[in-house]
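Q: Could you fold this chain for me?
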Amino acid sequence: MSYDRNRAMKDLDDEPHTITVARPKPYVRRRGVLEIINGVDAGKRVDFEARVRVGSRQFADVIVPDDRVSGIHCEFTLGEELRVRDLGSKNGTFVGGVRVVEAVLTSGEAVLLGRTRVRVLPVEGLATTPHKAPTEFFGLIGRSPAMLTLIEKLETLAGSDSTVLVLGETGSGKERVAEALHLSSPRAKQPLVTVDCGSMPATLIESELFGYERGAFTGATRNFAGAFERAHGGTLFLDEIGELPVALQPKLLRAIESRSIRPLGGKRAIPVDVRIIAATNRDLQLEVAERRIAGRATCASCATRSSARPACRCRCPSAPTSAPIRSISPCRSRSDGSASPPTTSAAIFWRCWRRARATSRRWPVAPAPSA
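A: Sure. Below is the predicted structure, expressed as structure tokens.
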């Protein structure tokens, strides 16, 4: 083929095209300093980001040596406003001499916990910085600060083999997070086995997790490989681990620590090589503090790394204009691939809810919004 110089020059002389490049949406990491005003640790200052919990037991982020302070007494959150919320403490949380369940605070306002006064000072002058996290991560799609922060955490965890606890409301897509972690890990070519601890009778969970041998109980006519054994070399996802019976939690702890299991009716331990990802919609710190969950079996073992999955209302406004059906988008796609503009926030929420319910049938039934 001969080279046409005139044609090439003509192409260069065509009218220039304008290309619009969207800048990454900036976000601010909200940080604060919690200061103890009086008591044994008077003057102690603790830096935190977004949320901090105060109590007298080891599950709290900040431990206060006060016998009138509950195990997990209250929490301070930094958002658009500085808030304090009592977490069911016995002696209460007081602001300005009034016992509160939840209150909005001014910067530096004192809060009384038992005999101890504390205050929170938000860190001022934080400059917004562009978020460098990608907007897609193995099927997770989002552009809001909440989703970008989540993707950034998942990228950090992708190369490790540590146990992960995913926290999030029902229907927020915790299973998708587990799938993304598995697909991004070196174990991606090995099996991902899911066990739903919330939908299974307590009498069957043990045999589902650890398996059984022939003759272990009435009806056991053959050997059965449990989830740990089936997931050997891959990932085991324990969904709704907060529903796991208390009697079974010590056995799960032994399996996690020793990396070996013993099937029901078995006489020898079977070594297993699995990465464990757990998920729950419960607040495990509070569950442990109230002794409804064994602390060592869940918080100490499953929460090696924790990641909070933002709810739909936090990430809907950021969804891309076109997305796979498995993602949640606030815009209804047209036939040409473009998206119609969103209307009100209520309409966006219910549109997302109907789409997710139609595709996965996993979302809870909720009443329609009033006009």
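A (continued): Residues 161 and 286 are 27 Å apart (CA to CA).
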